[in-house]
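S1.2 Input.
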Amino acid sequence: MKKSIIMSFVFSQCVFIILLPVWVELTKYLHPIVIGVVWFSTFFLVLFVVCLVKKEQIQFSKHILHALTFLYSIGLLILLFFRPKGQNYGTINPIPFNTIHFYLSGNVGYLITFYNLGANIGLFIPFGLYYRYIKKTPSMKQLLIITIFSISTIEWLQLFTKRGSLDIDDLMLNVLGVCLGYFIYPFFRKVLFIK
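S1.3 Output.
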């Protein structure tokens, strides 16, 4: 197991360093903590793939799971509420798929499109996984209620604090990410085991 962690760390660092210009470019649009979030996500993803291929399991306590999720949530909240100046905040989009269509129509660069659509899904997958790990009898209905309420609250806070915009597409993509996490749990359970 120790070899897998070291191998994952080295490989993830290589990937991270090769793509460092991309991560630095993201800091023009987002708080610099994005580099830390990407680093953590890259390492975790590589470690998961290495352990899956080698058929190894990673075991840790619920306390570690709670702590990692808490730190990840703080990083995500910083990304959502502390952005570089000069961006247009305080807008409202109540029309489903309007923003998604805007990004896919080629009106903005590829990196911005990928980040806005991919990250709005991908960055929320861990919350669906977390829910499955901590609940003995997980309920999709309960998860949807919690997720829609939580993300709606964040969207409204972004609008009121002028730290972002209220966008129905963000809500839909974030909920999709949480639901993906919920459904891929059996796949992750093969590698990540909570004591």
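S1.4 Remarks. The beta strands are 58-60, 92-93, 166-167, 192-194.
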